[in-house]
Design a protein that fits this description.
The structure holds two protein chains of two kinds. Chain A is α/β, with parallel strands linked by helices. Chain A has five helices and five strands. Chain B is globular. Classes of the chains: A alpha/beta, B alpha/beta. At the A-B interface, helix 1, strand 2 and helix 2 of A face helix 2, strand 3 and strand 4 of B.
Chain lengths: 135, 320
Amino acid sequence: MVQPIRVLLAKVGLDGHDRGVKVVARTLRDAGMDVIYSGLHRTPEEVVTAAIQEDVDVLGVSLLSGVQLTVFPKIFQLLSQNGAEDMIVIAGGVMPDEDVAEIKKMGVREVLLQDTPPEVIVQTLTRLVSERGER
Amino acid sequence: MSRYVPSLELIDRAAKGNIQAIGRLISRAEGGVPEARPALAQIYRNAGRAHVIGLTGVPGSGKSTLVAAMTARLREQGQKVGIVAVDPSSPYSGGSILGDRIRMSDLANDAGVYIRSMATRGAMGGLARASLEAVDVLDLGGFDTIIIETVGVGQDEVEIAKASHTTIVVSAPGLGDDIQAIKAGMLEIADIHVVSKSDRSDANRTIADLKHMLTLGAAGAFKPEWQSPVLGVSSYASEGFDALLAAIARHRDVAFATESGKKRQQAIARFRLLKTAENLLSERFASSVGPIVPGFTDQLQQREGDPYTLASELLATSFK
């Protein structure tokens, strides 16, 4: 039996725009993945707890509010406190190029900005999970 | 945990309440990972302490919201609460959107609550195949009460009653009349009836219809020890929860301490046995007949064969 890839899509902070993340959720669902959506206005603590309880393969954080340099250090710190360093973290939304480079240094595996075609999102997640292997 | 941690090693961590170990064991149960079988067997043999509550109802009746509100109150009593929330898989892609967690966001920062979302993956009856194994793992993890929230159901998905000590059926106001209320199926399985959204004016009508149905004759596994109450509850107005929590506590005593409670536990074990066998059978069947199905389908479509004969042949081939 092939396990569907499990994904938590999260909105963190005061960002109230979730049309994009819902389109991504639908795209991943239609690609056969189990998608858990956090809802709006979550804290990094809530998101990391949910990701671990749900034992997702991928934690995807959607940000359109410019807080990536604040949120990701917190998320990685919490993941490592909980021994969940193997969680694949990706980012989506809108942000400046220099921030993309910065959060990738922190450990964000891919940053899928607003012009990413849906099939590329699916391929990226599938690739990252298959590279990780069994766990 | 970047390497593969053997499932038997995860048991100790899960028993100490480590959420990552609990989560991983549930994933392996869900994936049918052969390596996890001995661990899950050991977990089952040591489980059985928790009070398992099944909660079911039509889509949009307020199940997830009710679970969240109930859980907050069980927490006030000092109980640790595990939640297994089932949502449907797509019949086309096999994927799913698991949205129950959103309604439970007030519980997100409480370490005494564990929420796990699960997709049905084609299972009928309102549960996912691994739902009950997830319950075992949460039981091991020290959760006192475990609530299984079924997928939103129709009239006939009654498996939850065979898998839980206490079954709560949620009815929303405005969805039917007294004839709906006396139909066979879902309404019969309730140990506790909850009418949600009781702040709405038409809720009283639904409560009256259900109460009337119950006067026509007792149903359920616990007669004469138990009469199913009908309780109006409003998560919005925060009303009716004291009565609901009291009913749950009383039913727990009936389920664990009476003769009919013992019979129910026996029925739960029997269901678990037969359901697991059925799942094994259908997996084996699906994997062995795969290559010959297209040919048989053609014959059937061309009307060169009939469904009964071809299906019998398919079965015979599968178990040769």
